Here is the input.
Amino acid sequence: MLVVKDLTGGYSRHQPVIHQISLEVQPAEIVGLIGVNGAGKSTTIKHILGLLTPQSGSVTVQGSTLQENPVQFRSHLAYIPEVPQFYEELTLWEHLELTARAYQIPPEEFKQRAEYLLDVFRMKKVAKWFPHTFSKGMQQKIMLLCAFLVEPSLLIVDEPFVGLDPLAIQALLDLLLQRKKAGTAILMSTHILTMAEKYCDRFVLLHEGRVALYGTLEDMRKQIGLPNASLEELFIQVVKD
Amino acid sequence: MKTEQLFIQRMSSSWRQAIRIISLIIGGGGTPIVVGAMVIFLSIAYSRFLLWLPKDVPISYAIAFLLSLPLTFSRLRTWIQPADLTFLLPLETKMKNYFRYSFIYSTSIHLIRLLLVGFILFPLYQLRLGNTTSFGITIILLCLLQVWNSYISWLEDRLTSFQSSRYVHTLLFFRWLINGWISFFLLTKHEWISLFSFVVPILHLFYLRSMISGYPYPWMLLSERERKTLMKYYSIAGWFVDLPHIRFPVKERKWLTWFLEKLAPRQKAFSYLYWRTFFRHGDLFAIYLRILLWATVIILFLPNLWIILATLLFSIWLIAIQLPQIALLQRYPLITQLYPITQEERISCFSRMCWLLLASFTLMMVMVGAMTVVPVLYLLLIGTAGCLLGYFLSYVYIPKQIREKS
Here is the structure.
């Protein structure tokens, strides 16, 4: 589904932030992207989304790159950003309606999916409200609703749990598993390592812009030579070196 | 801490910023010429209105009503900010001087505003009601009434801490009646009734003063009002210069979106976004309506072929230069850039919206023109010119601007 090959890039040509990053996310798989602040997680995600141009390397989704076919490339993926970003001029329902139109979801299907998601995240009552009146957690839910509405083949999630209440976190995890079962490839960046260990199938541990460890928990234990280490212990081991 | 110094500091810095924006506007090309032309057009239209005005129109009522509005709406400008609720609250007992300075400043501005309104209304007064001396005396007495209004307005604000908004609105309505009453009798030279009527405001002042003793300052109200005042000024400045860092308030305008839904239920994603942004973002729709109103006034009072043509083309240009800000991707969240939609489709959605807005503006102006003595054939030619300009702006000029800025 998603193949990132030897990706080097950043915000300036003279100072790349990430170096030779390679990773893959297969359908029906959750891959955890982990690392300390400034390790290059968000930069990697921005390159995958096509918001930054790589200095070298490539990003392909379903076999095509952004340059080859931007509309097809984008129609496969949905993104949940770390910081909620919304349209000041649209209500929650209109956010969903706009997303549906952008991804050409048929009206009947849209209504069915939207009502289900509003129900799951307990947002039905505020569907006609403007997001600037929402709490930060509720604003984050708009991002979740829009992304899940699309039912994409590839879902990229950046720190999804920040600001969410426990019920919303559970709803999000359930939905992630549901999407995974339906065949969606999920790349999830998170700092909550216990959650990542429990829900992710494989991991990419970034350190100083490079892939430090890669694979299943078992693979990473072998790579570092700590056979019984938890994800947190592996993480600390890599970072302190 | 001397709180009056804080007030002076805030007032000066606000004026410095205002002067900076005004300099930008003056230095930004044709604005002074445009404003000058508008003033000339409006003054010609006003003099024509005075000539047309039938003799049986009750001018005194109209002037009294027009004067009562600035007199009644005399809120204090305090520059109270949201952070003051944390940092200035411990200084509440020392804030008396701050608000005293705010009262002096605001009353001075209210008096200037009253004199300006008086200056505009003077030709109307002179037409039927009296001469310069009697108008001068009326204005001096109204200035006294203005000082009273500014003070009572402050007391009404303080009442909001413990009284219901309905009660405060009733007081405001009562004050408006007093203003209308006194203005009317001053204008119609019933000096004794007017002077005797001044007793009512004095009694009202003592009544309110006795009520507010011990009331806290309405911090939240003042802070919110300051925010709205700033937005109002920025939205006026936004007519002439770009202020991309300012976040204008959203206006829901439910009926318009309902109408939109009925008219075009299957809009493309970006048409959906742009139309809603046009109707709800800050003042864009209000600007469209204001330009429509001004152009209507000019066409009705100066029904000349060339003036109608110039007004129409100029208005279309004024609307068109406001519109590209809706289409700039930078003003939307990041997710907008991830939609599987080409840039060409985005621009085409935007061009269509611009074209519909400008073409309907042209149509409305031709309809207004049809109410005047200008022959229909000429109006059709003017309409064609408007449509051509609208089409050029929508499909050539604006897309080019958007591509350059993106």
User: Anything to note?
Assistant: Chain B has a mean pLDDT of 89.
